[in-house]
UniProtKB/TrEMBL annotation:
It holds the Pfam family FAD_binding_3. InterPro entries: FAD-bd (IPR002938), FAD/NAD-bd_sf (IPR036188), RIFMO-like (IPR050641). The keyword Oxidoreductase applies. The lineage of its organism: Bacteria, Bacillati, Actinomycetota, Actinomycetes, Kitasatosporales. It is an enzyme of class 1 (oxidoreductase). NCBIfam families: PRK08243.1. Residues 2-343 form the FAD-binding domain. This is 4-hydroxybenzoate 3-monooxygenase. Its EC number is 1.14.13.2. Keywords: FAD, Flavoprotein, Monooxygenase, Oxidoreductase. GO terms for molecular function: 4-hydroxybenzoate 3-monooxygenase activity; FAD binding. Coiled coil: none annotated. It comes from Streptomyces curacoi.
Length: 391
């Protein structure tokens, strides 16, 4: 098998890249190790930055998002039983975010790819990327029980944190920057209308809580829990009671309960792999970097990477210059580190470390007071939350 761009992984990064290349007249093959149903139902991100929503629209994949997604013009910060709303459009010259689940983004892109795009092979597991530093890199993969080879001009590793493509970058050329956190998120999906019409980020002495939503009738809620917590150790009643405690306000706000349809625990990690390119292998999305979900940046960073790659390859096709491909890693990493900083700031602002001292508790509250009382501080948050420009 042969193609111009071999794409490993059909998460948001790989699927959007295939679409952008198709629109630019560049052929690709996508290899995905899991089956279609699994990819379409894996619960993950839900917040699309303004720039991400614009890219999906421009790629012809925004129709259902515009119909069913929920435009959000702000978030609420909750601390000390008080509420403070951050108004995005007022602080950023009109920018907002879109609540539209990653599962739905993937469904839309898969449908388009199967209808109009190049091959998308499910249950096709990449085993290794070979010859990344030559002009003809190859992906060895297994599909329907048989091993095969995909010969490419370029390989883009969009295979997430646990994929194989990162391993093709020699260790002596690699630098890894990493931080793990001593807590995780217990996330639930519940069949109940969201109790608030915007996301609520709550800092509480018992730990962080987040109220989010998937649709007007489905709530997504998270609780900070100790690292290594088993989701099944929490009964539904215990989860609701703890959420109520952490969201409590002085003005009598109420959290509506409903049947919990799914619960799981997500670990928290910050991770960056440098460089994001080795020869003709390019890394994109979670294959190269992870952020804790507090800033809602992971999916958006994946989109930024593949937009940068698609532009660079299109530029090379049109002008013959590899200049933008050569600077891919630096261009992506500038944005990645801004998202790492923001995600770290939001995480340390809102979560309570198990060994937090009273001094650190007071500092957290002082940082939140500053956000609630300073337009400059709020603007910084609003600009980062609604998204950094795509290079
Ligand atoms: C619980 C949770 C909540 C999150 N919330 C948010 C949020 O609110 N906002 C946000 O922006 N981000 C959020 N994220 C992060 C976001 O989901 C990820 O950053 C995003 O999925 C990255 O997309 P990706 O395409 O790079 O990687 P992935 O979505 O991980 O896709 C990688 C794909 O590669 C496939 N693959 C792996 N290995 C191979 C192989 N060897 N061969 C072939 N295929 C392979 C995988 O099956 C997968 O389909 C959240 C993540 C989690 C876990």
């Amino acid at each position: 098998m042969r193609t111009t761009v071999g794409i490993i992984g059909a998460g948001p990064a790989g699927l959007l890249l295939a679409r952008l290349l198709h629109n630019a007249g560049i052929d690709s093959v996508v290899l995905e190790s899991r089956d279609r149903d699994y990819v379409e139902h894996r619960q993950r991100a839900g917040i699309l930055e303004q720039g991400t929503a614009d890219v999906l629209r421009a790629a012809g994949a925004g129709e259902r998002m515009d119909r069913e997604g929920l435009r959000h013009d702000g978030i609420e910060l909750r601390f000390d039983r008080r509420r403070h709303r951050v108004d995005f459009p007022a602080l950023t010259g009109g920018r907002s975010v879109m609540v539209y689940a990653q599962t739905e983004v993937c469904k839309d892109l898969i449908a388009l790819q199967l209808k109009e795009g190049g091959p998308l092979l499910f249950e096709a597991e990449a085993l290794a990327v070979e010859g990344a530093d030559t002009d003809s890199p190859r992906v060895r993969f297994r599909h329907e029980g048989t091993e095969d080879v995909l010969d490419c001009d370029y390989v883009v590793g969009c295979d997430g944190f646990w994929g194989v493509s990162r391993k093709a970058v020699p260790a002596e050329l690699t630098r890894v920057f990493e931080r793990t956190y001593p807590f995780g998120w217990l996330g639930i999906l519940a069949d109940v209308a969201p109790s608030h019409d915007e996301l609520v980020y709550a800092r509480h002495d018992r730990g962080f809580a987040l109220l989010s939503m998937r649709s007007p009738s489905v709530s997504r809620l998270y609780l900070q829990v100790p690292e290594g917590t088993d989701a099944e150790a929490w009964s539904d009643d215990e989860i609701w009671a703890e959420l109520e405690r952490r969201f409590e306000t002085a003005d009598g706000w109420r959290l509506e309960r409903g049947p919990i349809t799914q619960k799981s625990v997500t670990p928290m990690r910050s991770y960056v792999h440098e460089p994001m390119r080795h020869g003709r292998l390019f890394l994109a999305g979670d294959a190269a970097h992870i952020v804790p979900p507090t800033g809602a940046k992971g999916l958006n960073l994946a989109v930024g990477d593949v937009v940068t790659f698609a532009r660079a390859l299109t530029y090379q096709k049109e002008t013959g210059s590899a200049q933008l491909l050569d600077t891919y890693s630096e261009a992506c990493l500038r944005r990645v580190w801004q998202a790492e900083r923001f995600s770290y700031d939001m995480t340390t602002l809102l979560h309570r470390a198990p060994d937090a001292t009273p001094f650190e508790d007071r500092l957290q509250l002082a940082r939140l007071e500053r956000l609630a009382g300073s337009r400059a501080a709020e603007t910084d948050l609003a600009e980062a939350y609604t998204g950094f420009p795509f290079g």
